[in-house]
Amino acid sequence: MIEHAIVQQAIPAWARWAALVWLFVWLPVYCYYWGPTTFLFLCDIAVILACVGIFTQNALLISSQAVSSIVVDTAWTIDIISTLVFRKHLLGGTEYFFDTRYPLAVRLISTFHIALPVVLLLSLRRTGYDSRAFWFQSSIAAVMLVASRILSLHKNINFALEDPFFRRSWGPAPVHLLVILAPLILGIYLPTHLALMRAFRPVKSSGT
Asked: For residue range 2-15, what is the model confidence (pLDDT) as tens digits?
């Protein structure tokens, strides 16, 4: 009970409420301008789960979205910077940010990609890292990739239709999804998980 009380006081109240307010502002704006299928994107799922995790001080939600977001959002930031400086997308995936058909204010909201890794790391300093995050986030990614393939037939959400490098489909749907999912889990999630386990104190599961 004492340990539980300490965890519940870990994240300051102002930060918890700020996460909730951001979520209630961000959700309708994104839905209106980008459509409901935008919430199939793993980076948008990360915003929702991270905000809920911060508000509820749920270490598993915060940890899982750290596994998901730190590398990907850093890559997003690098691509934005390279485009602004060199007028060329280094990695791709941020083209929408420069699409003037959408209001600048709406596009600027996407800069959450810059702030989210920092917010998640600061939150992990308070809550600790839940080692179940790797498997939890891997499961989320698998489900969302399948959903993206089924529900977004005309959009390449989460690269469920074409890979980001060769712009091609790798055979039947199950094969292609595996080609996308395996590098995501083994090349991004697993190394991030191992690094976070070393960097932050562990969180015991509720059953221990």
From this structure: 444 444 458 999 99
State the virtual CA torsion across 101, 85, 159, 139 in degrees, nearest 10. -110
Helix (H, G, I), strand (E, B) or coil at 174: helix
CA distance linking residue 54 with residue 58, whole number of Å? 7
CB within 8 A of 170, min separation 6: which ones? 163, 176, 179
Q: Any idea how long the chain is?
A: 208
Q: Which residues pair with 129 in a beta bridge?
A: 202
Give residue 145's Cα distance to chain centre: 14
Q: What digits encode the pLDDT tens for the residues 112-146?
A: 999 999 999 999 999 999 999 999 999 999 999 99
Tokens 């839940």 belong to residue: 130
Residue ranges per structural domain of the chain: 2-199
Q: How far apart are CA 85 and CA 163, in angstroms?
A: 26
Write down the number of H helices and E strands in the chain.
Answer: 9, 0
CB neighbours of residue 149 within 10 Å: 19
Candidates 207, 10, 14, 42; CA nearest to 124 is: 10
pTM, 2 dp:
0.87
- Gyration radius (Cα) of the chain, Å: 18
